[in-house]
């Protein structure tokens, strides 16, 4: 009888683990509590807007090797799109200015010497901030490393909040330094922006489910694990509301759920387990227009723009939908969502003036406001110390999730890496074996 690999959780970390081990002669079973897989990176039909939208905006970079390897395995690389240049348009609403960060393709940052390609108003001496971030100690926060000036205000602070989903005066400088080492420091070829042609599910979830089906893996939705039994240092059973599944001597379990759920399920089996317990929110506003607007300039190539000096941080255009992402949203927790949505729409109108062929309406069109109160763990030095590795004190159990010790923030790339790490921690034969 084939070894059973129980994967609890059908988000990207669980799907990554399933894809990694499926087809290796083991019986893979994914248990997903919800009605659909994908977790925080999926698409759904929104009745209010009358169309399909993503539950959040995610921008990938070509540096995200784990993501592209995963997409290669599931045959989904052709579902992404993006410009052929490492360009990032920005609009500053505080000190009105429009520019495009235009990185050099190679490792030598020639772009910093060109006033038309770098951040307006920056001084070359401010580049020392990058060196300070890369060499930061585990206890430093991002703001400790940022030199005053436009390079920090217009780029590094925005980049930090987007990457870590934590305010710069709280976020780990060392973690941001690691992200810079894996992206910007490698040059423009590692920083080509990529995003789904259709939606997150169509790129990251549906192809994975089709791939798993071909390889005879089981994906069971609506199957919430309510308890995990363990005896003599190993998991012996998974409990569901309507049944108990015994975990055989050769079987293994990968727990790919959120940190609070993992802690709850393992409070008896692994009472000493420590996980991140502070979280940051993300606020998304989706606006559907009467007809698709016509983008111009760099915005026509990227279909996204960064915003500085506003609540709005990133705006994405997809057909007739303008979607806004506000990271580290805990700072707006006392704001009324509807009032926040009205302010964001006015900021969108200001930002889009000159980026679209025509003006946007004064009043917001159809809109959907989504506040994820616990979108990611807070990427503070204290919380980073609470991230566990994939291996656990139970020999047949491994952890996966963007909250585990991936070396990355809570990102798609981190989620996918964590699934691979869990497979390796259990000594399973994965996709790169042989």
UniProtKB/TrEMBL annotation:
Gene Ontology MF: a single term: oxidoreductase activity
Domain Amine oxidase: 12-425
UniProt cross-references to InterPro entries, sorted A to Z: Amino_oxidase, FAD/NAD-bd_sf, SQase_HpnE, Zeta_carotene_desat/Oxidored
PANTHER family: BLR3003 PROTEIN (PTHR42923:SF47), PROTOPORPHYRINOGEN OXIDASE (PTHR42923)
Protein name (record): Amine oxidase
Species assigned in the record: Acetobacter aceti NBRC 14818
């Amino acid at each position: 009888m084939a070894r059973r690999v129980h994967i609890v959780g059908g988000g990207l970390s669980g799907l990554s683990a399933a894809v990694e081990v499926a087809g290796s002669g083991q019986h893979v079973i994914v248990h997903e509590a919800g009605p659909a897989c994908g977790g925080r990176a999926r698409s759904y039909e929104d009745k209010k807007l009358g169309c399909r939208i993503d539950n959040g905006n995610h921008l990938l970079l070509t540096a995200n090797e784990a993501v592209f390897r995963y997409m290669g395995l599931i045959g989904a690389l052709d579902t992404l799109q993006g410009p052929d240049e490492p360009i990032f348009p920005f609009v500053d609403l505080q000190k009105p200015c429009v520019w495009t960060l235009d990185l050099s393709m190679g490792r030598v940052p020639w772009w910093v010497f060109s006033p038309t390609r770098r951040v307006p108003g920056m001084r070359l001496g401010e580049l020392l901030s990058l060196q300070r971030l890369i060499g930061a100690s585990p206890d430093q926060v991002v703001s400790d490393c940022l030199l005053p000036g436009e390079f920090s205000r217009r780029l590094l602070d925005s980049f930090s909040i987007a990457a870590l989903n934590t305010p710069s005066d709280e976020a780990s400088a060392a973690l941001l330094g690691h992200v810079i080492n894996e992206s910007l420091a490698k040059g423009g070829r590692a920083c080509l922006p990529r995003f789904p042609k259709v939606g997150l599910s169509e790129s990251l979830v549906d192809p994975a489910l089709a791939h798993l089906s071909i390889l005879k893996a089981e994906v069971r939705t609506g199957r919430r694990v309510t308890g995990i039994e363990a005896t003599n240092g190993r998991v012996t059973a998974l409990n569901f509301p309507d049944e108990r599944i015994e975990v055989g001597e050769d079987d293994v379990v990968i727990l790919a759920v959120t940190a609070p759920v993992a802690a709850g399920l393992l409070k008896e089996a692994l009472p000493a387990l420590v996980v991140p317990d502070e979280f940051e929110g993300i606020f998304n506003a989706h606006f559907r227009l009467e007809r698709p607007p016509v983008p111009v300039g760099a915005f026509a190539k990227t279909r996204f723009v960064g915003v500085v000096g506003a609540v709005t941080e990133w705006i994405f255009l997809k057909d007739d939908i303008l979607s806004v992402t506000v990271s580290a949203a805990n700072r707006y927790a006392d704001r009324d969502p509807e009032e926040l949505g009205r302010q964001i729409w006015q900021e969108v109108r200001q930002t889009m003036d000159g980026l679209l062929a025509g003006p946007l309406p004064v009043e917001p069109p159809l809109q959907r406001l989504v506040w994820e109160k616990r979108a990611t763990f807070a990427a503070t030095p204290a919380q980073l110390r609470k991230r566990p590795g994939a291996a656990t004190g139970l020999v047949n159990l491994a952890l996966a999730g963007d909250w585990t010790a991936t070396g990355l923030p809570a990102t798609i790339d981190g989620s996918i890496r964590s699934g691979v790490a869990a497979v390796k921690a259990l000594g399973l034969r994965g996709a790169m074996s042989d």
